[in-house]
Design brief:
A two-stranded antiparallel sheet has the order 1-4. It has 375 residues and is mostly helical. Helix 3 packs parallel to helix 13. The protein is built from 14 helices and 6 strands. InterPro entries: PGGT1B-like, Prenyltrans, Ptb1, Terpenoid_cyclase/PrenylTrfase. Residues 58-355 form the Prenyltransferase alpha-alpha toroid domain. GO terms for molecular function: metal ion binding; Rab geranylgeranyltransferase activity.
Length: 375
């Protein structure tokens, strides 16, 4: 593959995202490039194929160019409405690029500086420079820095102190100072502390107790006790329990049946019963099945076909379903799902942390999904 030199003027590459999820308001996310005025556009680093791309192949060149070439769109309303999600977008883009073996397509030092600039004195990270800290933005910051082998760029003690300060007496975690509680935040707290090897700094046992209260009769988990089972919440609870060494609380067969029933006739997966298929659930459902060792309960060939059919074969990127507008959120989770399916040419991904397996291995963390005897 032909390579050219990176532009030296760009401060950071981000992306424009359209993000729609079941029972949630559709959000358009702009993760934009901040560049010097004399270098508004960065030349693509990768050459494009001259022949029409095949619909049954992952178009790596197109997707690398798509992530790399998303530029400043300050005239768009979305730029100002969605800047709180830019740090998460960096994580989606960097992880997808690493899985495609092109992590160097974005300027490493500039990405690291941007992430560090999002940190507050409290230790938490905002979604963009100057935004209030939130635990949901703190995890992608740690994930990006770990992927780029740059965790030493921040004060880990501050991060852990910030996370610990958000744990409630019942073991749950709130997202920030305003008190919202969600099982997502339990997973995030455990994941951050595990990546930093500081699990002892939070009350893991109490957190497990609270997560178990969110388990439902169908084997799934909700966002709070009594909440409806949802594939994304199941991902957070199952993998939080995996990090905590508490997967014995999961009824694997019961949950496996609920998860495998998310696959529709077209091969795609949905988030809960009676909902449409969506590429992002290729990750939320499949990763949970991987962690509980039930991946063989879905049809991998049909799911692969569905993900590939959602590609934009002209400009790159992957959408929520075929025919819709692409975004970096679904591009990331589509590629992550294919990596779990061991798609040729992609690096392995860890289903617990949603990070390249080589990064987790480099941190010396155990492969939690391989430590669970099939029961």
């Amino acid at each position: 593959m032909a390579r050219q030199s990176h532009s030296s003027g760009g401060k950071i590459i981000l992306a424009e995202i359209s993000l729609a999820r079941s029972s949630q308001v559709s959000t358009t996310v702009s993760l934009n490039a901040t560049q010097d005025s004399d270098e508004f556009a960065q030349e693509s680093t990768y050459s494009m194929a001259t022949e029409p791309p095949a619909t049954d192949k992952l178009q790596v060149d197109l997707h690398v160019n798509y992530i790399q070439s998303l530029n400043t769109k300050k005239d768009d309303l979305e730029y100002w409405l969605t800047e709180h999600l830019r740090l998460q977008g960096i994580y989606w883009g960097i992880t997808a690029l690493d899985l495609m073996q092109h992590v160097d397509a974005l300027p490493r030092e500039e990405v690291i500086k941007y992430v560090c600039d999002c940190q507050h004195e409290s230790g938490g990270f905002g979604g963009h420079i100057g935004h209030d800290p939130h635990i949901q933005n703190t995890l992608p910051a740690i994930q990006v820095l770990a992927t780029l082998n740059a965790l030493d760029a921040i004060d880990a003690d501050k991060v852990v102190k910030y996370v610990a300060s958000l744990q409630n007496e019942d073991g749950s975690f709130q997202g920030d100072q305003w008190g919202e509680v969600d099982t997502r935040f339990c997973y995030i707290a455990l994941s951050i502390c595990s990546l930093l090897k500081r699990l002892d700094d939070i009350n893991v046992a109490k957190c497990v107790e609270w997560i178990v209260k969110c388990r439902n009769y169908d084997g799934g988990f909700g966002n709070q006790p009594g909440g409806e089972s949802h594939s994304a919440q199941i991902f957070t609870c199952v993998n939080a329990l995996a990090i905590a060494g508490a997967l014995h609380h999961v009824d694997r067969d019961l949950l496996g049946w609920w998860l495998c029933e998310r696959q529709l006739k077209n091969g795609g997966l949905n988030g809960r019963p009676e909902k449409l298929e969506d590429v992002c659930y290729s990750w939320w459902v499949l990763s949970s099945l991987a962690t509980i060792d039930r991946m063989d309960w879905i049809n991998p060939e049909k799911l692969t076909e569905f993900i590939l059919s959602a590609q934009d074969l002209e400009d790159g990127g992957i959408s929520d379903r075929p025919g819709d507008m692409v975004d970096v959120f679904h591009t990331h989770f589509g590629i992550a799902g294919l990596a779990l399916l061991k798609y040729e040419g992609l690096r392995s991904i860890d289903p617990v942390y949603c990070m390249p397996q080589h990064v987790i291995d480099s941190l010396g963390l155990p492969r939690l999904h391989q430590h669970n005897e099939r029961i």
